[in-house]
Amino acid sequence: TGVQTCALPIFEMDPRLAEAYVERAKLLYRTKRYQQALEDFNLALILDSSVGEAHFLRALVRYELKDFRGALDDANKAKDMGISVDEFYFKEFEKAVSNQRASSPQE
After folding, report:
1. How far apart are CA 59 and CA 54, in angstroms?
2. What's CA 69's distance to the chain center, in Å?
3. Are 58 and 45 in contact (CB under 8 A)?
4. What does the alpha-carbon distance between residue 22 and residue 55 come to, in Å, rounded to a whole number?
């Protein structure tokens, strides 16, 4: 059957169910369906922007999607919200941002 990717209307009616989007996004992330996971993390954060875990997990998804600046921003947001984020992630995200900037053509 697989993971359903349509947004159920009940999720949109009750912000307390942001966690349901987070849980589904985790499953999508584990199955390497990164774009769909990103969409669910985005929806969860629209419903409840105080879910620090969602910011960190969205950072991991953004990294996989090569949105390194977004990954770094989300990791910083999660850390600011009290989520324990290992320095390893910051180093990886910063290195990726730097490498991406270095390989981009100068305007």
Report:
1. 8
2. 12
3. yes
4. 10
Q: Tell me the C-alpha distance between 107 and 93, whole Å.
A: 23
Alpha-carbon distance values, 61 to 15, 99, 102, 105, 107 (Å): 22, 18, 22, 25, 28
What are 61's two structure tokens?
């998804």
Two structure tokens written together for 89? 């992630």
* Token representation of residue 18: 């942001």
pLDDT one digit per residue (tens) for the chain, 107 residues: 455 545 545 445 566 789 999 999 999 999 999 999 999 999 999 989 999 999 999 999 999 999 999 999 999 999 999 999 999 999 999 999 999 999 887 65
Q: Whole-angstrom Cα distance, residue 58 to residue 75?
A: 8
Q: Please give the distance of CA 19 from its chain centroid, rounded to a whole number.
A: 13
